[in-house]
Automatic annotation (TrEMBL):
InterPro entries: GPCR_Rhodpsn_7TM, GPR143. The chain crosses the membrane at residues 29-52, 73-91, 111-136, 157-176, 196-219, 247-270, 282-305. Its main location: membrane. GO terms for biological process: melanosome organization; regulation of calcium-mediated signaling. PROSITE patterns: G_PROTEIN_RECEP_F1_2 (PS50262). The lineage of its organism: Eukaryota, Metazoa, Ecdysozoa, Arthropoda, Crustacea. Gene3D superfamilies: Rhodopsin 7-helix transmembrane proteins. Residues 333-400 are annotated as: Disordered. It is found in: Membrane. Residues 380-390 have a biased composition (Basic and acidic residues). It comes from Halocaridina rubra (Hawaiian red shrimp). CDD domains: 7tm_classA_rhodopsin-like. Keywords: Membrane, Transmembrane, Transmembrane helix. This is G-protein coupled receptors family 1 profile domain-containing protein.
Length: 400
C-alpha cells in the first residue's frame, strides 16, 4: 500500500517499546501475502488498459486511434503510473516476505533497509503521479467543454515533476540525517508530518477538486447540445446521463481506494498515545487490498478502448500462444507499416489530423467542436455500460 506509516517501517528499531508492541501485533507474513496478490491484480489491470487493440471489425486502427484522443492518452499514462506503483508494492512485499526477520531483530542488514527505502520511494512517487493524472483527466474534460486546451507538455510536467518534488521532500526529511526515525528524541512534527502531508495533500485535492470540475463541465453540456443539434431528445438525455454516471463512478473509485489512507492518517495523528490497534490493522489491510486494485477499477470505469475491440498481438509475442479468438483478427490484417508504428504513439488527436475523415465544412466543424463529449444520434453510438464515444462523425477530441 501507499502509506507514510509503512514507509517509516524502513527505519524501524526494536529498541523502543512502541516498535516492540507494534511488531507483535503486525503479522508481516499474512499482510505481505495480501499485498502481493493485490499488486498482481493491479499489474494485470494496468497492463490490460495499456495494451494496443484492433477495432471491432478486425482492422488495425490507422494512426493509433486508441492512443491519439486526449482523454485516452491521459488514461494510458494513468495506467502506466498504476503499473509501476503496483510493481513497487510487489517487489517490496516479496522482499519483506523473503526476509522473515525483518523488523524483529535489531541487526537487520543495511541492504534490506535501503531496498525498502527505494521501493517505498517508487510506490510513493508513482501513486502520487496517479493522483495527478486523475485530476488532469477531470481538468481536461472541463477545458474541452469550454473549448479550451492545455499543451500536453504541461500535463506531463504536472504529473511527473510535482510528484517528484513532493516525494523527495517527504522521504528525505524522514530518512535523513539517519535512519533512526523512531527515536524518542525525534520530533514527530518535524520528521513525520512533511511525509504525511506530501502523501495526503494530493489525495485530498483530488477528492475535492474532481467532483467540482465534473460539475462545472456538465453545467455546459445541455447548452452545447442545444447549440449544436437544436434539440434535446431522449437519446441525448441518455447520453448525458451515461456520462454523468461514468464520472460518478470515476470519483467513487478514487474515494473507495484512498479514503482508508485518509482515515488511517487521521487516526494515527489524533490517537497516537492510545492507538486502537485492531482498528488500525483492519484499515491497513483495506489499504493493502484497495490501493493496488485502483488499476483494476480504473480499467472498468475509464475503459480506454472501443466496444468490440480486441487486443492486438505484439510482434515479439509467439503467435502459437496467442488466444485463438484473437488469431482471426490477426489474419485479417497485414502487419502494421513503419508509418503506422510511428503514428501509434501517445499523440493528441487534435495535433494529428485523421486523413480517413471526409473534410468537413466550417459549419460542421464548429458544431462538432462544441460537443466534444457527445456521440452521434445513431443508436449504435450509445454504449449501455459507460456510453463509449467512438463515432467517426465526431471531432477527434472525444472522451471515452
Amino acid at each position: 500500500m501507499a502509506s507514510p506509516t509503512i514507509e517509516s517501517l524502513c527505519c524501524i528499531s526494536t529498541n523502543n517499546a512502541f516498535s516492540k508492541d507494534f511488531l507483535i501485533d503486525f503479522q508481516t507474513v499474512p499482510y505481505n501475502l495480501v499485498s502481493i496478490f493485490a499488486s498482481l491484480f493491479g499489474i494485470a489491470g494496468a497492463t490490460y488498459q495499456i495494451l494496443p487493440r484492433t477495432s471491432g471489425n478486425g482492422t488495425v486502427s490507422r494512426g493509433g486511434r486508441f492512443f491519439r484522443t486526449r482523454g485516452r492518452v491521459i488514461i494510458k499514462w494513468l495506467a502506466a503510473a498504476d503499473l509501476m506503483a503496483s510493481l513497487g508494492i510487489l517487489i517490496r512485499s516479496a522482499t519483506w516476505l523473503a526476509d522473515d526477520t525483518f523488523g524483529s531483530k535489531p541487526d537487520d542488514s543495511p541492504l534490506g533497509q535501503y531496498l525498502c527505502i527505494i521501493t517505498s520511494g517508487i510506490i510513493h512517487y508513482f501513486y502520487t503521479a496517479t493522483y495527478c493524472w486523475t485530476l488532469i483527466y477531470a481538468l481536461d474534460v472541463k477545458l474541452v467543454m469550454q473549448e479550451r486546451r492545455i499543451s500536453h507538455q504541461i500535463y506531463h510536467f504536472i504529473a511527473w515533476i510535482v510528484p517528484l518534488v513532493l516525494c523527495l521532500l517527504g522521504l528525505l526529511i524522514l530518512y535523513l540525517p539517519d535512519l533512526n526515525c523512531h527515536s524518542q528524541a525525534v520530533n514527530p512534527y518535524l520528521r513525520f508530518l512533511p511525509n504525511y502531508m506530501s502523501t495526503f495533500l494530493p489525495i485530498v485535492i483530488v477528492m475535492i477538486g474532481n467532483p467540482i470540475l465534473y460539475c462545472l463541465a456538465f453545467s455546459r453540456v445541455e447548452k452545447q447540445i442545444m447549440s449544436a443539434r437544436g434539440r434535446f431528445t431522449h437519446t441525448e438525455r441518455r447520453v448525458v446521463d451515461g456520462l454523468r454516471k461514468k464520472f460518478f463512478f470515476i470519483n467513487g473509485v478514487f474515494y473507495l481506494c484512498w479514503l482508508p489512507n485518509i482515515i488511517n492518517g487521521i487516526v494515527l495523528w489524533t490517537s497516537w498515545d492510545n492507538l486502537p490497534r485492531t482498528f488500525i490493522l483492519v484499515v491497513w489491510y483495506l489499504m493493502a487490498v484497495l490501493n493496488p486494485l485502483q488499476a483494476v477499477f480504473n480499467c472498468m470505469v475509464y475503459r480506454a478502448w472501443d466496444s468490440g475491440s480486441v487486443i492486438r498481438r505484439p510482434s515479439w509475442f509467439p503467435q502459437l500462444f496467442w488466444p485463438r479468438s484473437m488469431k482471426t483478427y490477426q489474419r485479417m490484417n497485414p502487419p502494421p507499416t513503419a508509418i503506422d508504428e510511428s503514428l501509434d504513439q501517445p499523440h493528441y488527436n487534435d495535433e494529428l489530423p485523421d486523413q480517413t475523415h471526409v473534410p468537413r465544412t466550417p459549419t460542421s466543424r464548429v458544431s462538432s467542436e462544441r460537443t466534444p463529449l457527445l456521440p452521434s444520434s445513431s443508436k449504435d453510438s450509445v454504449d449501455e455500460s459507460f456510453h463509449e464515444i467512438d463515432s467517426d462523425t465526431l471531432p477527434v477530441k472525444t472522451y471515452s
